[in-house]
């Protein structure tokens, strides 16, 4: 394990590109305004009304995807399967593919686990009442560190997991990023469909998870893993075999 961390430290030090100017102030400004506007315009109508039964049923069918447990198990499986494959296969190409799979597993594990832990700490510290207590406490009721799940609405943990997961895949496979973003929004909003969260909780969770995946990708890029840093510091997904031309290419 010590050799592993030493190897990562050497990779980090070899990177000549600095941390990117992500204009985080502007992005934070946009996110905060989206959350506040959602609170003012959408949260009260959602809290004061019942979600239609067909919509709630649809949400119940889809919302389980945001459960971090199966994503964590899958990422661990990918990591160890890749490591085992690296030891079993013989060719250099197959070894590279196995390592690539293992680092995808590590990347997904870090993004899902640590974004989820931070989101859970935040929701406990903020202590916002959930929508099913709207008539008792309203939408601006905050009881920090109450120790009760009824006061753990903001941000949505499920939405954080969904945002982190799909942002990670959007960075790894940018060709399909529009589809991944659409999936994140739909699955995040299932928390509103089932009455577990307000829309602003979901927006905050999706944004938090997405930004966490981006920052994790930058760290991986600095270590030369999965990503490379563009001249402006943005993480770009590495091609596994960049020198291999497509069949039939001239």
UniProtKB/TrEMBL annotation:
Q: Which GO terms describe its cellular component?
A: plasma membrane
Keywords, sorted A to Z: Cell membrane, Hydrolase, Membrane, Transmembrane, Transmembrane helix
Give TM segment ranges.
Answer: 21-42, 62-80, 100-122, 154-173, 178-196, 202-221
Question: What GO MF annotations does this protein's record show?
Answer: hydrolase activity
| Cleavable signal peptide | none
CDD domains per the UniProt record, alphabetical: PAP2_lipid_A_1_phosphatase
- InterPro entries cross-referenced by the UniProt entry: PAP2/HPO, PAP2/HPO_sf
Please list the residue ranges annotated as the Phosphatidic acid phosphatase type 2/haloperoxidase domain. Answer: 104-217
Q: Where in the cell is it found?
A: Cell membrane
What Pfam families is this protein classified in? PAP2
Please give the chief subcellular localization of this protein.
Answer: membrane
Would I find Cell membrane among this entry's keywords?
Answer: yes
Transmembrane helix as a keyword of this entry, yes or no, is: yes
The membrane-topology field of this record reads:
Multi-pass membrane protein
Protein's name in the database = Membrane-associated phospholipid phosphatase
